[in-house]
Amino acid sequence: MNIGALVATLGVDASGLAVASASMRKFEATTNASITSINTRLATTGAAFKKVGRNMSMYLTAPILLVGGAAAKMHMGFEASMTKIIGLVGVARHQVEAWTEDIIKRAPALAKTPES
User: Fold this and answer.
1) What residue ranges do the domains of the chain occupy?
2) Global confidence as pTM
């Protein structure tokens, strides 16, 4: 049994979808601007840290290494001088070691190195 044909027309209000789409585009633009700003600040911070590291190497690490090298060289020269005393003058090693200890103890009070 056939009763007939049904024709229906549905009306859809898409205005809410258009508002949501515009809102999402605005959110995307705001998010992109924020990400760009953050990337710029991170690049600036990274450059600052790089500069700090370079300055520490130039003005802190290198001088410390140079002072350490100079101290080691001075120590070797002092030890060589004390060994010459033993070999050339004939003073006993234990006596020279006692003098060495005394010289090192007195050097800060005299504000001079054992070699100067």
Assistant:
1) 15-110
2) 0.50
